[in-house]
Amino acid sequence: MLSSAFSSLSLFLLALSPVAAVWPAPQKYSNGSSVLYLHQNIKVTYNGEFLPYTAGYAPQKLSSKEVVQAGVSRTLSAIFGSKFVPWKLHKPGSQFEPDLRKGQKWLNTLQIVQTGKDQASTFKPLAGEVDESYNLTVSDSGDVKLTAVSSIGVLRGLETFSQLFYQHSAGPFWYTPYAPVSIQDAPKFPHRGVMIDTARNFFPVPDILRTIDAMAWNKLNRLHVHVTDSQSWPLVIPSMPELAAKGAYHPSQTYSPEDVATIQQYGAERGVEVYFEIDMPGHIGVVSLSHPDLIVAYDQLPYYWWCNEPPCGAFKLNSTAVDAFVEKLFDDLLPRLAPYAAYFHTGGDELNKNDSMLDDGVRSNSSEVLQPLLQKFIDAQHARVRKAGLTPMTWEEIPLDWNITLGKDTVVQSWLGGDSVKKLTGMGLQVIDSDYNFLYLDCGRGQWINFGNGAAFDVGYPFNDWCGPTKSWRLIYSHDPTANLTPEEAKLVLGGEVAVWSETIDPVNFDSLVWPRASAAGEVLWSGRTDASGQNRSQLEAAPRLNEFRERMVLRGVGASPVQMTFCTQGSPEECNWPA
Ligand SMILES: *[C@@H]1O[C@H](CO)[C@@H](O)[C@H](O)[C@H]1NC(C)=O
Ligand SMILES: *[C@@H]1O[C@H](CO)[C@@H](O)[C@H](O)[C@H]1NC(C)=O
Ligand SMILES: *[C@@H]1O[C@H](CO)[C@@H](O)[C@H](O)[C@H]1NC(C)=O
Ligand SMILES: *[C@@H]1O[C@H](CO)[C@@H](O)[C@H](O)[C@H]1NC(C)=O
Ligand SMILES: *[C@@H]1O[C@H](CO)[C@@H](O)[C@H](O)[C@H]1NC(C)=O
Ligand SMILES: *[C@@H]1O[C@H](CO)[C@@H](O)[C@H](O)[C@H]1NC(C)=O
Ligand SMILES: *[C@@H]1O[C@H](CO)[C@@H](O)[C@H](O)[C@H]1NC(C)=O
């Protein structure tokens, strides 16, 4: 009796004992409380070979050693450069720093061992193709050992390593107070993503690169670029220059092929696969500006009879010219994307049936007429995606609303919530969860559209958007992508993505809206909704870690929002937790 009471007490304590501050939480973690200092001359080896530390080292090519060497450079630079003195995490006036007069015990070596061999697919994996697991130990005597199967696993472990350190307020001294440390870690889901929308508002390349960095800190590994939509076409297609020339908001708001390669390569070096979406056959009205014959319902009013957001516009569904256009577009684009991505997303959300009433080749809004045309369209486009060596992705309406039969390789992105994920996995389809009730980061901030004037000034009051309230980090953290699924169904959930639709978001407010809310999704997707003992992860345990991780993100150059006021981060949990 005594021992079972004791073990349930220790389980309880285990559940509440902080996982230092590593975010996302490792699967297994233990720490001590000895202090070890990190010197800029620490000896780093990779599979026995000495690796020099050069700040700002960029890989010369996508090889295991180059990727690891650049990862080491970023890790050490993050520790030395971010100057993180954690006063915000301790009670005012408390002595939280090690006493420098006591002499320092230094870390001797950082020994990195990669036990497996990388494949070409390591840098552009399908879900499950790369092993991201790692083990990390820091011994009391100052030896660090990081083992991983792949170079991407090494990067994940290096990120964890960086989060064990602080800077001393007295100056250039970096220490971990957690030795000895022992970590075993691996992701719960293989697909952990952020979707950005560069068509409603444009995002310059540096903003996207900064986002990739922040994703890597969060162990998020997929950046989905919803690159075009009815509002703008920022993507330069050299064989069809008219698309961006007429479709971009301004010549400055474009991505050249070099920009696209830069973004994808930057991601690949960090274990973040960047894949693109050209949404079709709806959400593509902008093509009308350069190819008016291919599009119906562009700029039709009132827009809500033709689409969900002006200026509408969809491909003609029974047109050989549309087919030839997509063929030419894909022949140009897909071979350039395929070296760095396993996926290409063909969109497929919110196709409005009325649009084809304006199409001389169809003149109908009936499902019976449209469904076979759409099936033919999807079959043709997905065949082209496969021919380019990519795996097609599509939004959930294609199988669920249109009954389109998809190849078994296809990955379906679900956003409408409810029982969509269950239905899709029940049909045997692989799914990415982006349930708007939890994972749409644009929601709940009010309308982008303007309403009445004068006497009618309060038409639309209180001007809410369609998907409020805002999805707080706690709400996101509560969401289980596999809730109510059978084990068989759950296996088909590859992971999830937060979505950042950008009608009212641009680089000015992006960071503060995305971080650290995407971090909450990142932890659910990496660590799992439940912890090692099968308990739901606790906000009480997560909040102090997220507070700390937010400080690290800010110091590393990302404008993440605060999680709590400093009064709480300085450690008054009895007053900042409910019930008290
Ligand atoms: C592990 O670190 C925490 C601080 O995050 C500390 O409170 C705890 O005492 C450490 N554990 C051991 C066994 O020293
Ligand atoms: C991590 O340690 C566990 C337990 O010893 C072992 O099973 C696993 O293979 C190790 N993983 C790596 C990447 O070294
Ligand atoms: C199609 O247009 C009619 C008006 O002609 C409208 O009542 C209906 O809601 C529209 N359908 C959709 C799906 O928008
Ligand atoms: C599609 O076009 C073909 C060839 O022009 C025509 O025979 C067919 O009737 C059209 N289908 C529909 C549903 O309008
Ligand atoms: C199809 O068009 C008719 C006539 O405009 C309209 O009444 C009906 O609502 C439309 N159907 C859909 C599914 O939008
Ligand atoms: C899809 O199938 C369902 C159930 O068989 C049916 O209710 C629906 O009308 C179909 N939709 C289309 C677009 O064919
Ligand atoms: C986790 O929380 C959910 C939602 O509140 C609940 O249904 C479930 O039973 C909890 N799981 C455990 C293991 O407590």
UniProtKB/TrEMBL annotation:
<dbReference type="Pfam" id="PF14845">
    <property type="entry name" value="Glycohydro_20b2"/>
</dbReference>
<feature type="domain" description="Glycoside hydrolase family 20 catalytic">
    <location>
        <begin position="189"/>
        <end position="528"/>
    </location>
</feature>
<dbReference type="GO" id="GO:0030203">
    <property type="term" value="P:glycosaminoglycan metabolic process"/>
</dbReference>
<keyword id="KW-0732">Signal</keyword>
<keyword id="KW-0326">Glycosidase</keyword>
<dbReference type="GO" id="GO:0016231">
    <property type="term" value="F:beta-N-acetylglucosaminidase activity"/>
</dbReference>
<dbReference type="GO" id="GO:0005975">
    <property type="term" value="P:carbohydrate metabolic process"/>
</dbReference>
<dbReference type="GO" id="GO:0016020">
    <property type="term" value="C:membrane"/>
</dbReference>
<dbReference type="InterPro" id="IPR029018">
    <property type="entry name" value="Hex-like_dom2"/>
</dbReference>
<protein>
    <recommendedName>
        <fullName>Beta-hexosaminidase</fullName>
        <ecNumber>3.2.1.52</ecNumber>
    </recommendedName>
</protein>
<feature type="domain" description="Beta-hexosaminidase eukaryotic type N-terminal">
    <location>
        <begin position="22"/>
        <end position="164"/>
    </location>
</feature>
<feature type="signal peptide">
    <location>
        <begin position="1"/>
        <end position="21"/>
    </location>
</feature>
<feature type="active site" description="Proton donor">
    <location>
        <position position="350"/>
    </location>
</feature>
<dbReference type="Pfam" id="PF00728">
    <property type="entry name" value="Glyco_hydro_20"/>
</dbReference>
<dbReference type="InterPro" id="IPR017853">
    <property type="entry name" value="GH"/>
</dbReference>
<dbReference type="InterPro" id="IPR015883">
    <property type="entry name" value="Glyco_hydro_20_cat"/>
</dbReference>
<keyword id="KW-0378">Hydrolase</keyword>
<keyword id="KW-0325">Glycoprotein</keyword>
<comment type="similarity">
    <text>Belongs to the glycosyl hydrolase 20 family.</text>
</comment>
<dbReference type="InterPro" id="IPR029019">
    <property type="entry name" value="HEX_eukaryotic_N"/>
</dbReference>
<dbReference type="InterPro" id="IPR025705">
    <property type="entry name" value="Beta_hexosaminidase_sua/sub"/>
</dbReference>
